[in-house]
Amino acid sequence: MSQVFFYQLERQPLLAVLAKLLQVTLDRGGKAVVQVGSPERVAALDAQL
């Protein structure tokens, strides 16, 4: 069965939280999908992660 988790950003920037969540997901043997609104944003996230 799939598990879905939600996280509310409060004090940390998106990139810091996203990197941590993705690492935890991969460490648990899971898969993740990150959906963004533009090819430019994909390139920016790819470069930063």
Automatic annotation (TrEMBL):
Gene Ontology BP, a term: DNA replication
Question: Transmembrane region positions?
Answer: none
- Single GO molecular function: DNA binding
InterPro entries, per this entry? DNA_pol3_chi, PolIII_chi_sf
Output this protein's name.
Uncharacterized protein
> From what organism does this protein derive?
hydrothermal vent metagenome
